[in-house]
Amino acid sequence: MNIQISDNAAKRILKLLKDEPANSRLRIAVEGGGCNGFQYKFDFDTNKAEDDIIIKNGGAEVLLDSTSAELIAGSILDYIETLGYAHFEIKNPQAQSSCGCGNSFSV
Fold first, then answer.
1. Domain span at residue 62?
2. Is 29 part of a structural domain of the chain?
């Protein structure tokens, strides 16, 4: 699927997992809604479905269902931390437009 996790995102995921149940992974899903038609959802999950895709970097693993993976194919999951805020960001080359917060997009 050619989806990547940046080193910054991998480090942050591993740090967050320390407070989650054993065998947890970050799950990214694309759902209908938001300002532009689709929105990203981030959550931790201990269950892997049959159609899930796992992407990895430096010990960090991210789960995506196959439909969500198609909508973010070619993307990079990054973690941005500045003096004013910190958040995960999906750099999605398929997004034709996105909202100001970057959490919703259209294809």
1. 4-96
2. yes
